[in-house]
Amino acid sequence: MKAEEANLKDGGDCVIMGGGPAGLTAAFELEKFGGKSITLEAESDVGGISKTCEYKGYRFDLGGHRFFSKVEYVKELWLEILGDEFLKRPRLSRIHYRGHMFDYPLRPANALFGLGPFEAVRILFSYAKAQLTPHKQEDNFEQWVSNRFGKRLYQIFFKTYTEKVWGIPCSELSAQWAAQRIKNLDLKRAVLNAFFGERGEGNQKVTTLIEVFHYPRYGPGQMWQSCTSKLREKGHQVHLNSRVTKINHNGEAVTSVTINGGTDTEQVVEGKQFLSTLPIKELFRIMDPAPPKEILEIASGLRYRDFMIVALIIEEEELFPDNWIYIHSADVTVGRVQNFKNWSPDMVPDQKNTALGMEYFLQAGDDLWNTADDELVAMARRECAQLKLANIDKIVDGTVIRVPKAYPVYSPTHGSEMARLREWLGKLDNLQLIGRNGQHHYNNQDHSMMTGVLAARNINGEANDIWSVNVDEEYHEEKRDLGGFPANKS
Ligand SMILES: Cc1cc2nc3c(=O)[nH]c(=O)nc-3n(C[C@H](O)[C@H](O)[C@H](O)COP(=O)(O)OP(=O)(O)OC[C@H]3O[C@@H](n4cnc5c(N)ncnc54)[C@H](O)[C@@H]3O)c2cc1C
Q1: What pLDDT is attached to residue 174?
Q2: Residue 453: helix, strand or coil by DSSP?
Q3: Ligand 1 lined by 307 (C-beta under 6 Å)
């Protein structure tokens, strides 16, 4: 429905800014206790970063969205929304390095043997050196990882991919981040196990390489389109092409928001309660009246990492068995390759063909971002062939999707900055911030969804702290992860 056709004045109790997983889940939860909502989505489709894009009948996920959660309520919601269309799929992912494939999550024995005896000896010596003369300071990612695994293993399996994703040297990433991401890998024990086998009952078993995960038949966007249909059936409004351009407040509460329906016609949407999934940076920029200068400066300093996927169509029935492959080789720009047909066969319209997603991590406005689409497709074809993932002659078509603000980046002063922003927002007692960029929180869908659920319940009289939602304490992949790369979050 176009914004100008919307019945915005009596839309409901709650105005939700953004129709991604957080916003739509909040609306879905509101419905459960009789609340009504208007969701305002800037784009022409729902789903946010978790939408499915389509090109000539081929469907592309912006990344690869595994539906995995340890929160029962989230799993129930997914099933309630999608039912039989929520497929159970086998998972395989590996690391591509110097023309060889290595298990992911990384298994040290597989890595040591796969790299050959010369490299294995180098790794072991470098590990021994790190044990004897570790970095005295463990301030950054590089020092933290090198101290535990040795410099050589760090260089091969941590440095390149991590730097591709974040775009800064590992020496500038915090050690705390490494400690949070990389858990339970013990190289010494892994090597002993490789030679002498698993010993003792207390030994943790390595997580099995092939797991099962859930995925909507037509990609993640199907979940959010189905959610939207269900909401509309129950009288909730979800408006597309409705960008929020102003958040009007009186210093104590938000009174309304202004939207631009893309036709230069502005409309004012009133409500009693407001939920925002907008990037915090944008939220503060469009507050009217504007917040104090100091607050605006903090908000405008928030940083993001952007993302681009070059989708390729290949005239081959089958290319490789993985759902996705991490590309650690430094001689190509691509960071990860998705094989969408292995996520769900229905992602491709013709089973004789395959569709790959070449993922690039970059900054909006940089040279790669500004490169013309046909050149990007040509580059992705070349890199795909160079990695021997497909024959270049069989790659017949491609398209480019740019995703700004895909990853919120934490600055060293993240905690104090967020505290200051939240303190100011605390004055507006009918506004809650939810979701990934809404809270500037590097998350998965389940976190976004739970912030939406709890915010909706707050509207119904509960007093949940939506900023302390923690859904991934025991994310299974972290149990035996040698990541160095976004392990469970991407
Ligand atoms: C490469 C990649 C891979 C990922 N893989 C996984 C995975 O495997 N599993 C998983 O669970 N999660 C994964 N995620 C994370 C997942 O995409 C996010 O957690 C989720 O989409 C966040 O939902 P959200 O609603 O909080 O935000 P978003 O998805 O960002 O939605 C926000 C919405 O607000 C809209 N909006 C913005 N500004 C305005 C405005 N001014 N007015 C109106 N609307 C506006 C946007 O258009 C968007 O639709 C991945 C993310 C990336 C980048």
Answers
A1: 74
A2: helix
A3: yes
Residue 373 near residue 405 (C-beta atoms within 8 A) = no
In this predicted structure, what is the pLDDT of residue 113? Answer: 80
CA of 97 to the centre of ligand 1 (A): 30
- Residue located nearest, by CA, to atom 7 of ligand 1: 65
Residue 475's pLDDT is: 41
In the prediction, which pLDDT does 112 show? 77
The pick from 49, 275, 448 for probing ligand 1's pocket by mutation, whose C-beta has the most ligand atoms within 8 angstroms, reads 49
Flag whether pLDDT at 362 surpasses 70. Answer: yes
> How much is the pLDDT for 141?
87
Task: Give residue 162's pLDDT.
Answer: 87
pLDDT band at 148 (very low <50, low <70, confident <90, very high): confident
Q: Could you name the CATH architecture of 3-50+71-82+216-300+411-468? A: 3-Layer(bba) Sandwich (3.50)
Q: Which residues of the chain are in CATH 3.50.50.60 domains?
A: 3-50+71-82+216-300+411-468
484 Cβ below 6 A of ligand 1: no
User: How many angstroms separate the alpha carbon of residue 51 from the centre of ligand 1?
Assistant: 8
| Residue owning the nearest CA to atom 29 of ligand 1 | 48
Give yes or no for a contact between 105 and 207, defined as CB atoms under 8 angstroms apart: yes
pLDDT tens-digit series, residues 77-129: 999 999 999 999 998 989 998 888 888 776 777 777 888 888 889 988 998 99
pLDDT digits (tens, 9 = 90+) for 464-481: 999 999 886 544 333 333
Which ligand 1 atom sits closest to the C-alpha of 242? 43
Q: Is 336 in the pocket of ligand 1 (CB under 6 A)?
A: no
Cα 45 to Cα 42, 181, 185, 225, 416: the distances in Å are: 8, 33, 41, 8, 35
Q: How far is CA 187 from CA 64, 107, 113, 148, 154, in A?
A: 29, 9, 14, 8, 12
Give the pLDDT confidence of 449-462 residue by residue, as tens digits.
Answer: 999 999 999 999 99
Residue 186 has pLDDT above 80, yes or no: no
- Tell me the CA–centroid distance for residue 18 and ligand 1, in Å: 9
- Atom of ligand 1 lying closest to residue 403 CA: 53
Q: pTM of the full predicted structure? A: 0.90
Nearest CA to ligand 1 atom 13: 444
Ligand 1: does its nearest atom lie under 6 Å from the Cβ of 291?
A: no
Q: How far is Cα 350 from Cα 199, in angstroms, rounded to an integer?
A: 49
Ligand 1 atom nearest to CA at 62 = 1
DSSP 18-86: --SHHHHHHHHHHHHTT--EEEE-SSSSS-GGG-EEEETTEEEESS---B--S-HHHHHHHHHHHGGGE
- Ligand 1 center from residue 50 Cα (angstroms): 5
| CA proximity to 65, closest of 96, 91, 26 | 91
Would you state the pLDDT for residue 457?
Answer: 95
